[in-house]
Amino acid sequence: MHVVADSFSTQINLLTPLISGIANGAAYGLLGLGLVLLYKSNRIFNFAQGEFATVAAIVAYVFDRGTGWVPKVPYFLAILIGIVAAVLIAVATERLVIRPLFHRPRVVLVVATVGVALFLIGVEGLLPYPQTASLRTISDALNVQSYVGRVDGVVVLDQDVAKLIALAVLALGAFLFFRYTATGTAILAVSQDTTAARVVGISVERISMTTWAIAGLLGGVAGVLLAVPPAGSVTPGSITGLTLTVAFSAAVLGGMTSLPGAFVGGLLIGVIEAFANADNGFVPGLNSLPTAQAEVAVAVVLLVILLVRPRGLLGQEA
Amino acid sequence: MTTQTQLLRFDPQAARRRASVTGWLVRAVFLLPVLALVLWVPHHSDDWTNDAVFAAIYAMVGLSMNVLVGYTGQISLGQQAFLGLGALTAANVVHTGYNAPDPFTFALGMVAAVGVAAGAALLLGAIALRIRGLYLALVTLVFGSVTADAVFTISSLNGHDAGVSAYRPTAFQSDYGYYLFALAMVAVCVYVDVCVRRSKVGRGLIALRDNELVASAFGINVLGYKLLGFVLSGAMAGLAGGVFAFWSQEFSDKDFTAAAGFNKALIFVVMVVVGGLGNRTGVIAAAAFFALVDPLLAGLAHHTGWLSFYTDHKQYISNLIGAGLLLQTVIFNPGGLGQVLRPFTRWFAGHPLSFHDEHGDAAAAALAGGSNVRA
Amino acid sequence: MSVLEVRNLTIRFGGLTAIDDLSLRVDEWEIVGLMGPNGAGKTTAFNCITGFYKAGAGHVYYRGDDVTALPPHRKAALGIGRTFQNVGMVKSETVLENLLTAQHTKTGYGPLRALVGAGAVRRREKELAAHADVILELLGLTQFRDRPLGSLSYGTLKLLELGCALASDPDLLLLDEPSSGMGPEEAHELGDRLLALRHELGLTMLLIEHHVPLVAAVCDYVYVLNFGRLLAEGAPDDVRNHPEVVAAYLGGEAPEALAVTEEEAS
Fold it and tell me: Of the candidates A55, A169, C227, C263, which lies 20 to 30 Å from B212 by C-alpha distance?
């Protein structure tokens, strides 16, 4: 994140991490959305969500580069293929793993998603392509000058704008989808009572597949966003390590049933992370916290919140 | 009650009949290969001995997971924290520069390892009283990573980032000698587990896992026993950590990073599920398998010429194996390895060999009935 | 002194008053019935008496001691046994193990000794198992000793649940619809069995029941609840013809309801 510092303005040094934090938080927010979606509909925590994202990133990267027998395709097409790959993996997971276990206790399903995550990490690692997926920036891909916007004198990269736009669109879309579409309502119905839903004519199987496809979509977009600078790169398993922190804050903030909670949770994590890593020499007193202590502090705060309100700040049910 | 139709002429005496003297002799004969495998094979080379110690450590962690997840029905994705705390404590207590510690200090170190880990588990347990299911899982996860990032990185505890040496006492200097020590520690854990299972402690834990209301109606102090479950689990994992410290002869925070720890946490869960929740033998077997899968495959790769491919990708290969076994167990065989082995373990215990498994689905029932272990 | 006394018990859940100023008493060796339409608050009262719910107001006395605030496991240790509406046992274990678990408060050893595996523990375990066998025989369930619960019929499970309640040698038994799922013959047998248990073991019982003939045969005294409030109390016959009780069950105004029953009786 480039900083054009006006050394007399403290405002700049707070804005820089804030903006990059929100930009990254956008990706985290998408992961959180996917998690909450599946939690609302299947009542499980999908440990494999992070790997849906990774799959998208790696596939997009490979198609963008054109390695081996994979043809090199235009940038945006590569990204699209990556996202489609994530959707396919999600649907496959639903068909092969979730469906047979549909009526088992939820714990069993969660454990199964752990298995899926491990499996995907293994497969990703064994592919004959470089382990680290790092997509080019949009400006590189389009061969245009990096678009520079200025907010109070701080440079905002086109990357960040793209991330924010993606998040806003998807979040709004999710909200509208659940509120106003028949499928969205159906998903919520199925999540509450599959038998009753069937009785009113909802095809539980179709809905289940759709839900997972959407989760795959959300994960896929998140993965692509995370593979682009400044987040930098994605390796097998890296996002899964990430997702869980996101999930935790989503859970704490929203209770796992709140889409806005997931949204906010992800953004918050992005911002906290950016601040923790920021070098704030210009602002007296606000030095960057040593990572370990920052992490403990955040964890303690989250824990206290959960202890006081075991259903999260905004959530209604555990 | 005569209203009960008695289609099966169940003979209660038969179930309780123990083997005759000849029966026991036969069983002893079949026990020999197992003993050979455990005692004699690791003598083959230093590498094999070291791998066997690693398997023993995993076995103890598996047993600790079994107590927490199998009996008490709680979730733990941070067990590696107890392992690390045990190692850290043992190394620091025993740290004697370049000399081998005397037996007393060594014993003190091990006891301290158990104590500290149990204490940390008590803390986690206290939190678990209030937070359930999915949120608890995430709390244990964060517990694991915070411990790795904040406790193991404390300079004064980890030898200023260079590692704290932990030499073995003279009695266990040799690799094989240390292996026997490790085996003894596994035996201790198994003994405690047997005591737990055969007493009100085990029954209390299982009852509260199944249904807390009924458990308290039976007079079980649910809060107290939940904490006890955590403490026992932490203690066993701490013991494993102590054994680990002297096996690698140092504590280094590089061994216990958050990322590596998270990976381990997943493996531990896989281990206890594949082994069969609540089944001691299955869990030990599965744990040993996961500990040995790397050296076994490496050996295989070496002989078939795939060694460099294997070394580059071994983490992913073991992930695939673990994932495959996990999914297979969860979908097709919920009782896990334990259920598969059950006819044999019951036979060894003196019962007649029977593949008609009436109690067999206890693990499956656990997976089907545990009202607390719900997201 | 009564075995169980409840005074002015009130429980509220949010805006709903589930139990309103309930008072009842169970004396030594009595079998007392607690009746009322569904939703009257009978199980709620049980849950409060046994400590699962916290009372908003009022007291519960066990043999004169105020036990209102005691947690459920402590009450169980005092000698209050209880059964549940849906069978309340450890479903993943066998019959024998359930009976052993039910004796949790009477094992005579603590968890620490159990961990060490003292010989005393093993001896006590054998004694507990023997006691479990006695109970199985008492109820005619010996053949199910090592069976997992999943394979048993509902009637057997209910009986076993009674066995678990008896396993800890309780003083006072709280039974929540022990005859549910039973036909008339079985219910009759149950009635005989309860009377026999009272006689042989010196038990005092409080029953939630819907089965009128059973209540009539077995109960010395009956309390009727409706909407959380005590509607009527007395001997079974008196209560049975009480106009308000009839109205509560049949849902009409008292005089009409009474007219209906009089018609049916003639």
Answer: C227
Block residue for tokens 């040799």 = B174
CA angle B92, B95, B101 (to 5 degrees): 130
ipTM entry:
0.87
Are A248 and B141 inside 8 Å of each other by CB? yes
Report yes or no: B98 and B168 within 8 Å, Cβ to Cβ.
no
Read off the DSSP letter of residue C232.
Answer: E
Which range marks the domain in which residue B238 is found?
A: 41-369
Residue with tokens 């693990």: B363
Which helix (DSSP H) or strand (DSSP E) does residue C133 occupy?
helix C119-139
User: Is residue C253 helix, strand or coil?
Assistant: coil
**What is residue C105's three-state secondary structure?**
helix
Closest partner CB to B132 (pick from A116, A236, A318): A318
Number of domains in chain B: 1
Distance from C-alpha of B148 to C-alpha of B146, rounded to nearest angstrom: 5
Of C84, C102, C115, nearest to B192 by CB-CB distance is C115
**Residue pLDDT, tens place only, A251-293:** 777 777 777 777 778 888 777 777 766 654 333 334 444 566 6
Tell me, yes or no, if the pTM score tops 0.95. no
Q: For position B174, which CATH number holds?
A: 1.10.3470
Report yes or no on B22 lying in a domain: no
Nearest CA to CA, how far is B192 from chain C (Å)?
6
Does the residue B2 lie in any domain?
no
Chain B interface test: which of C53, C97, C104 (most B C-beta within 10 Å): C104
Q: Which residues contact B11 (CB under 8 A, 6 or more apart)?
A: none
Q: In sequence order, what DSSP letters do the residues of B89-151 get, joined into one string?
A: HHHHHH--TTSPPPHHHHHHHHHHHHHHHHHHHHHHHHHHTT--HHHHHHHHHHHHHHIIIII
Contact between A73 and A66 (Cβ < 8 Å): yes
Length of chain C: 266
Q: What is the structure's pLDDT at A133?
A: 67
Q: Which residues of A touch B334 (CB under 8 A)?
A: 108
Cα–Cα nearest to C104, from A132, B331, B219: B219
- Hey, which chains touch C, using 3+ CB pairs under 8 Å? B
Question: In three state form, how does the secondary structure of C30-56 look?
Answer: CEEEEECCCCCCHHHHHHHHCCCCCCC
* Helix, coil or strand: residue A74: coil
Average pLDDT over residues B19-45: 81
Whether B45 is covered by a domain: the verdict is yes
Ranges for all domains in chain C classified under CATH 3.40.50.300:
1-79+170-266
Give per-residue pLDDT as tens, A196-242: 887 887 887 788 898 999 999 999 998 888 887 655 677 777 788 77
- Of the ranges A68-72, B143-147, C57-61, which one carries the lowest mean pLDDT score? A68-72
Fold of C1-79+170-266: Rossmann fold (3.40.50)
The amino acid present at C262, given as its one-letter code, is E
| Residue-range domains of chain A with CATH | 10-308 (1.10.3470)
Q: Which of C97, C105, C150 is facing B365, going by the closest CB pair? A: C150
Instruction: Please judge whether A307 and B334 are an interchain contact, meaning their C-beta atoms are less than 8 angstroms apart.
Output: no
- Give the count of alpha carbons within 13 A of B176, CB side only: 9
Instruction: Name the pLDDT band for B369 (thresholds 50, 70, 90).
Output: very low
Q: Give 3-state DSSP helix, strand, coil % of chain A, rounded to 5.
A: 70, 5, 25
Give per-residue pLDDT as tens, C163-201. Answer: 999 998 999 999 999 988 888 888 899 999 999 999 999
Q: Are A245 and B142 within 8 A, CB to CB?
A: yes
Touching check for B374 and chain A: CB below 8 Å?
Answer: yes
The answer to the question of residue B321 being in a domain is yes
Q: Which residues of C124-144 are buried (b: 16+ CB within 10 A; e: fewer)?
A: bbeebbebbeebbebbebebb
By the 8 A CB rule, do B71 and B277 touch? no
